[in-house]
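Predict structure. Chain length: 93.
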Amino acid sequence: MNVDKAKKRIAKQVKKGFKGYPQLSLAYFGKTADVATEVVVTFTLAEGAEPQQQKFASDNDVREDETIQSVLVKIIDRAGANSVLETEGVTVL
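Prediction complete.
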């Protein structure tokens, strides 16, 4: 899947806001605020349930990595997430 198409699909899900559980959260991390080298996906099945996390890392910006963005779209689809939340910007490690 094209990286721009994947980013648009993710943004469309994020724009819907909180619609209940299951919920999927995306948070980007990097050494600087300009380049995200890691994305953490947190899946929560129900309110109060133990969240599950998965990390994806790259030497380049994960927001521009076609493979990682395509995987994020597949995770959202397969998880059946009602809500997709995204932390704004890049958290500096």
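Summary: The chain has one domain: 3-92.
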